[in-house]
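Exercise 7. Predict the joint structure of the components listed below.
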Amino acid sequence: MAKTKAVVVGGGLAGLMATLKITEKNIPVDLISLVPVKRSHSVCAQGGVNAALDTKGEHDSIDQHFYDTVYGGDFLANQTPVRGLVENAPGLIYAMDRMGVMFTRTSEGLLDLRRFGGVKNHRTAFAGATTGQQLLYALDEQVRYKEVLGLVNKFENWEMIDLLIDDNEVCKGVVAQNLATMEIKEFVADAVVIATGGAGMIYGRSTNSIINTGSAAAILYQHGIPFANGEFVQIHPTAMPGDDKLRLMSESARGDGARIWTYKDGKPWYFLEERYPSYGNLVPRDIAAREIYDVCVNMGLGVDGKNMVYLDLSHLPTDFLNKRLKGIMDIYETFYGDDPRKVPMKIFPAVHYFMGGIHVNWEHQTRIPGLFAAGECDYMYHGANRLGANSLLSAMHSGTVAGPAVVKYINGLKATAAETIGNLAEQVVKKQQNEHEKLMKMEGKENPYKLHDEMSDIMYRNATIVRINKDLKETDVKLQEFQQRWKNINVTDMGAYSNQTVMYVRQLRGMMDLARVIVGGALRRDESRGSHYKPEFPKRDDENFLKTTLATYKNGNPEFSWEEVDISLLKPVERKY
Amino acid sequence: MSKLSFFLRRFHSLIALIPLGIFVFVHFMLNSSIFLGNEAYMTMVNFMKHAPFVIVLELVLIAIPLIFHGLYGIYIVYLAKNNALQYKYYRNVAFYLQRITSLIMLAFLVWHVYTLRIAGGGTEDVYGILVSTLQDPVGFILYVVGIVASIYHLTNGIFTFCITWGICVGDRAQKFFATCAILLFVVMSIWAVGILLALAAA
Amino acid sequence: MVNLKDVQYIKLKIKRRNSPQEASYWQDFQIPYRPNMNIVSVLMEIRKNPVTADGQKVNPVVWECNCLEEVCGACTMLINGVPRQACAALTDKLIEKYGDRPIQLEPLTKFPVIRDLMIDRNKMFDNLKRVRAWVQVDGSWTIGRGPRLAEKDQRIAYEISHCMTCGCCLEACPNYNAKSDFVGPNAIAQVRMFNLHAIGRMQADERLEALTDKGGLQDCGNSQNCKQVCPKHINLTAHIAAMNRAANAYVLRSFLDK
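Solution:
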């Protein structure tokens, strides 16, 4: 058999981990990324990564981690893969430690652990408040070594714009475009891993990075691969309100002792501690976000009458804060001006994470053989609500599942993609070149950035913390209107070189498709579960909705169906904190 | 040899202090004999001129190291793209001054050595040339500028030497050595001007 | 001192270039003043209506940005002559400091320009390869607990591990330029980090070998601009000095040992 090759799209934690696992078996990887992989969105993760290391004398266990994760996700996560996740966690953290992640240490030189939301034990390993950055850099370094060894070819500043799927519905690679020269080129490969993260940009302002448009996931969706649980979008309770971005203020602040409060009757009111005596400030994110929303919007008790409450670290010792939370305090100080060591921070909930994503099997393969998805862009581990510090874990873990699955798949192939692809690659490249020409000639009236603003405004209003069917219906109508208006876009940039606007127009189309998946899923799920909250249906309804939502692309619209959830290990019970 | 540049840079740094830096101190000490009067000064100059192997010592300990330091230094000056006007931080200005003073120093030394060591004849002549140069205001100012620049180059160099050789690492240590270097610069400058004034008054 | 209440427009003067082959040129822009903006949000505002200050319709300005919270390093550019991240450059502070004159944006000068403010910093990643900036583990698989590390070493290394390869230190370094192949302050500091790690230090000599090679740490001229401009406040000068000590010892040791 001729030489095999894999393509990994996305250079965040999941993509780099998959790359590492594939190249360790000597299969070369073409790594395609929108940005230099070291600048991927994983750098923004702050608080830490969960693993039941049990080094604090609390008898923490894998069973407990499993229970907390499934319970925290309101029983919507498939339990067999979650079990794999929590079992792999300790070994994964130790491997990352060996690769040079500068985790915060105890005086004995062990990994220190902190508490996180929805958990009563110390289970979160961390590197100050920049854990995602440190983990990403360690994998970036390992992959750089593989690059030196000739096993990895990086294509940074390239964007995947199409898949190579043959008539037998087998994936044979991708087509990508160079963001500087605008060259469109095929990447023929025996297997493809999509690891392109979440889609926070659908909501405009979020804690996500600019590149998190979800457009790669949208391309899979447009190829008929179902998008699962799209309606489950995590709203992080504590982010800095901002003009351009809602900057995350890590849950680890509360894990390390920060308190949330606002004034009521002229006195500080610690409403989370009062309402949830057992978990206090460390209730899961969906609950904390709803409570802050309730206090500000329904009760009108936000700080200075605005939609903000205090996140207060100022009672904690400065040296302790500097050692553990400097990362977020620096961000707050830079962008707001106040020193959180002295003055309470002002925060409000913000769109943060997509629990839903590309539908995959337990080996992270989509329904198309040879096409895999890993990381935030898949839907696997978090059910209806993700526990803090489980995302870095699931990103890396899914790479350790998808990578070896790719190796197994490739080793089972009888012929390479290069041998069997025929002229598919030329056809798709040609098609995409024509598409690019067409996009470049769009001379309508709509500015794509303004159109995006309009879409994200209505998404923010109607598809975040509180969801009402009438509003969701209206939103879906609006979204279809936006899809029509998209056709009348003006690609303001005439440049033939490094044209960001034309790429953005493509991404916007994908964002609109996924927005409809979110709204349509939310509309059909008449219950409240995890992050999905409908005042009209305030209870969880296991009889009708203990199911995974699947949205499949049919003639430009999402078509919805349901799939049973694997609850083989833990019987669903009511979720109460 | 791929280590060539490392060795050259380190050698360049080392010889600046040993022997050249030490020579400057000795040179200052010997010239301080002017404070004991003209006769003492003349005795010193005479002794130095007729010391055994003086040519060999001058060549090995002064001339060759100096020429190497100067020539390689010019190459280092050429390598930098100075930006002291854009980044007006103290150390960056010092970095720039180190290069400026090196060029002043070079010009000064060529003049100093040529007039007093190469062109100048006997002891009497050298002394005469020196005193008359210093009695001319222009000559005096040129001497002050040349020597103060040289002292700056030396004392700032001592500080960077401490970093280059990994003697001071942390912030506090660097600050301590930087302060010492400034004090040394001030003391040596006063000392040098004192010597020049004494010579001019001779 | 400008009173922000009197400011009507945020004015920008941007150095542009259509492609690497073409010459650069300047264009002025202005947008109505809004409080609490930063350079990225101003550039985003411009692309919604790409018109110059004198009303000429132009292509939107191209720049890199991603995280918008000063951790990815993408949006580094020269802002009023200082290399820094555009997202963390708050317009109100710039106006307070520099007055009402146009804020000047230029691409970094030490790297090839791709278009407008977008640059190619691949050389920085190549330099990380030169100094072997990774821990050489046997593999990523699970083989139990990693080695312990003293907290005091972790504190030093953790500071260095914030380096986001943004290029500010290289931009400000007088010795990093077209005439030299200096690896730069960031790569030297990275070596210190890896050499502190319990497994990483097993390859310490290989990294020191690279650091004493052509373009190695000997090219540092102690201008210390790197430390001044580092957005992550990494004490690069101290790390360079520490590596000087280690490199000198290494060279002496390898001479005496062979």
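Discussion. Chain B touches chain C through 33 residues (CB under 8 Å).
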